[in-house]
Amino acid sequence: MACCVLQITGLIFGGVGMVGTLAATAMPQWRVSAYVDGNIVVFETIWEGLWMDCISQLGIRLQCKFYDSVLALPPPLEAFRALMCIAVGLSIVAFLMAIVGVKYTQHSKEGLRAVSIFILAAGVAFLLTGTLVLIPVSWTGGSIVRDFYDPQVPVPLKRELGAALFVGWGSAALLLAAGAMYC
User: Does residue 46 contact residue 29 with C-beta atoms inside 8 Å?
Assistant: First the structure.
């Protein structure tokens, strides 16, 4: 009974982590403009994401523009895109393997070895996915903090942590927890 509860909990954590990974990949709020000066009148908010930049003017008008060329992107951004896309695909595969493993664990008593292989493979895939999500999210967060406190970076170029980073950290934690439960 405890095994089934653990498997269902891992399935829920993995499913929420999968959706969070997809959301963090698609969200444009990876880097958000920071206002450090004493100016309290703010007309524009700038969001920078993996796929596009957005500008919100007075919270009324939102304009987003996809990046023009993949070749013009900085190499870290290209790598982060690739890692997050691989993580999305791998999280879907891990979630499907977990569903198969949980379904056949409850219905099959004779083929426990085959079922345990599905559960173990789902656990390893969830752990790998959590690690793949954690790398670009933490790297981006670290570079934002480093640039924010660097006096050499001009004030208009300073950024704050965006909502997509927090979604990414949460989904990575859920995916790692699901992987630990299945392993």
Answer: no
The residue assigned the tokens 């999500």 is: 133
- In the predicted structure, residue 13 carries a pLDDT above the cut 90: yes
Continuous segment of H or E residues that includes residue 161: strand 159-161
Question: Three-state DSSP class for 26?
Answer: helix
Q: Supply the pLDDT for residue 34.
A: 67
Token pair, residue 152, equals 């050499």
Pair 117, 104: CB distance under 8 Å: no
Measured distance between the N- and C-terminal CA atoms of the chain, rounded to whole angstroms: 17
Q: What angle do the packed helices 75-107 and 163-182 form, to 10 degrees? A: 40
Q: Evaluate if pTM is beyond 0.70.
A: yes
Residue corresponding to tokens 């903090």: 145
Fold of 1-38+74-182: Butyryl-CoA Dehydrogenase, subunit A; domain 3 (1.20.140)
Q: What is the pLDDT of residue 74?
A: 87
pLDDT digits (tens, 9 = 90+) for 90-124: 999 999 999 988 877 666 555 556 667 888 899 99
Compute the half-sphere exposure of residue 173: CA atoms within 13 Å on the CB side of its CA: 7
HSE-up (13 A, CA, CB side) for residue 64: 11
Q: Which of 7, 43, 10 is nearest to 127 (CA)?
A: 10
Going from N- to C-terminal start, the domains of the chain cover 1-38+74-182
